[in-house]
Amino acid sequence: MIVLRTHNLTKSYGSKNAVDNVSLTIEQGDIFGLIGQNGAGKTTFMRLITSLANPDSGEVELFGATTSAKLAQARTRIGTVIETPALFHNLTAVQNLEYYRLQRGIAEKSRVQEVLEIVGLTDTGKKKFKNFSLGMKQRLGLAVAILSHPDFLILDEPINGLDPTGIVETRDLIKRLNQEGITILISSHILTELAQVANKYAIIHHGRLIKTLTEAELHDECKRALAITVDDAAKAITVLETVLQIKDYKQVSQNELRVYEYLDDPAELSFQLNKAGVRVSSIQTVGDSLEDYYTKLVGGAA
């Protein structure tokens, strides 16, 4: 089932395209990572989905709804934490949640305590929101977002400013919510952190969508390997499989192979190929870190 689909979504502020013809699809069960530098357009994109901003052109489809009336109904199935959570500084966690429970017409009074347990804020007592740590504020914002049992959760930079403990707690919470059936769109400029939770990714730069890929595709793009150029790829593959017992490899062109084993002993690999009569023109280690991969994409887009 498709939870969100956008088609050529565009939003400009003055002469700047904050979101520029962005088309993407999020399916039920995804943890979809939206990656981009600060100012790339991530927050504006999320605001367009949630009707906090109106697009100049393009289309938003939520749970199959595209008309204004049906979109308004579909948006009741979304929980959001975009920018600073709208919470009352002089109220406690319970009081803030009770306000939103009543505002949203949620009949079950026990829901306030349930979400506090989910986000780990049951021990805040009479402490007011203004005295919370940044991590506690983020978690209370998340509690508000899941208060009405959403099917789709939109989180804008939920780990921004958190200490390492807060990052781990937020990451675990996001995974748990997803396992309970909530589809999640999460933005961050920290690719390495998103890589620990997301199963699909979209990279946005200057408002434009420059790449979408799955978890497996991202792993493959960044996976380290020995790139080997040979004169006879078929014969080289025979040596890899029969002599060296290598199973993890692929042929990327007529004369180039990628071998994901023997990374610490390329000399032995080269020796066995030469011994079998395969001429090795070059052998080198390739593969990017997540940061390198992102930097190359953004640099190419620029």
Estimate nothing, just give the exact number of structural domains: 2
Q: How large is the share of residues in beta strands?
A: 25-35%
User: Which class do the helix and strand fractions yield?
Assistant: alpha/beta
Mean pLDDT, to the nearest integer, reads: 91
Separation of termini? 34 Å
The parts where pLDDT drops under 50 for at least 5 residues are none
- CATH-assigned homologous superfamily of the largest domain: P-loop containing nucleotide triphosphate hydrolases
Percentage of residues in helical conformation: 25-40%
CATH topology of the largest domain: Rossmann fold
> Total number of β-strand segments?
13
**Strand order, sheet with most strands:** 5-6-7-3-8-9
**In this structure, how is the largest beta sheet organized?**
6 strands, mixed
Per CATH, which architecture of the largest domain? 3-Layer(aba) Sandwich
Instruction: Give the radius of gyration.
Output: 24 Å
Give the overall shape, derived from the CA principal axes: elongated
> How many DSSP helices?
11
Would you give an account of this structure?
- This protein is α/β, with parallel strands linked by helices and 302 residues long.
- The chain folds into 2 domains: 2-219, P-loop containing nucleotide triphosphate hydrolases (Rossmann fold); 224-286, YebC, transcriptional regulation domain (Alpha-Beta Plaits).
- 36% of the residues lie in helices and 27% in strands.
- It is built from 11 helices and 13 strands.
- The protein has helices at 42-49, 68-74, 93-103, 110-119, 134-146, 164-179, 191-194, 215-222, 233-243, 266-275, 290-301; strands at 2-13, 16-27, 31-35, 57-62, 78-81, 152-156, 183-188, 200-205, 208-214, 225-230, 249-251, 256-259, 280-286.
- A 6-stranded mixed β-sheet has the order 5-6-7-3-8-9, with helices on both faces. It has a 4-stranded antiparallel β-sheet with strand order 11-12-10-13.
- Helix 6 (164-179) links the parallel strand 6 and strand 7.
- Helix 3 (93-103) crosses helix 4 (110-119) and helix 4 packs across helix 5 (134-146).
- The longest helix has 16 residues, at 164-179.
- The protein is elongated and about 80 Å long.
- The two termini are 34 Å apart.
- The model has no long low-confidence stretch (mean pLDDT 91).
